[in-house]
Write a structure and sequence with these properties.
The chain has a single domain, classed as Immunoglobulin-like (Sandwich), CATH 2.60.40. By secondary structure, the protein is mainly beta. Helices cover about 10% and strands about 45% of the residues. It contains one helix and 13 strands, in the order H-E-E-E-E-E-E-E-E-E-E-E-E-E.
């Protein structure tokens, strides 16, 4: 560089400046797409509540059950959409495809899956889904959905709810929620 002339801006200097600034721009713009805001339900683990009950087995070995899911009241105004109820149960024998019957209208039952247990018997599960794909529960906390079913089993061990929060950022899948067992 000649001392008579001031500093000049070359293509090389321009490209160096861009290269140094690019990482900062990427860091500044990457987060918002998946970030949890107050409207997503992400910061509130009690986005829904629920219970299930299980009755005694009838003479055919089928146990009357029901599951109820409600939207928790709270500050979040996003609706919660139920996409499925998973029923976990034990059985002495490998479950038949029709081991779940009497499912409430508006709900469809999948085919049960099972894993043999050490010492005999099977750990099984089946998913019951809304016929429409989702059951929407509004954020007011008064909406709920209920599904009745009978399952041929030794015992129902757990009932879970899956779904997503419908927000202005789009669908945010929520963690699986274990429903509390309601004793008679």
């Amino acid at each position: 560089m000649d001392s008579k002339h001031g500093p000049t801006l070359s293509r090389r200097r321009t490209l160096q400046g861009i290269a140094w600034a690019t990482p900062a721009l990427l860091v500044a713009t990457a987060a918002p797409a998946a970030a949890c805001s107050g409207r997503t339900g992400c910061d509130n683990p009690s986005y829904c509540d629920g219970t299930y009950s299980k009755g005694d087995c009838d003479d055919k070995g089928r146990r009357d059950c029901d599951a109820t899911v409600t939207r928790s009241p709270g500050s979040d105004d996003a609706n919660f959409c139920v996409t499925g109820i998973t029923v976990c149960f034990t059985s002495d024998d490998k479950p038949k495809d029709d081991c779940v019957t009497g499912v409430s209208a508006g709900w469809d039952c999948g085919t049960p899956t099972s894993q043999p247990r050490t010492g005999g018997g099977y750990d099984c599960q089946v998913e019951i889904k809304p016929s429409t794909g989702t059951q929407e529960l509004s954020s007011g906390g008064t909406d709920g959905c209920n599904v009745d079913f009978k399952v041929e089993c030794k015992d129902v061990t757990k009932v879970q709810c899956d779904g997503y929060s419908d927000t202005d950022l789009g669908k945010v899948t929520m963690p699986t929620k274990d429903l509390s067992c309601k004793t008679a």
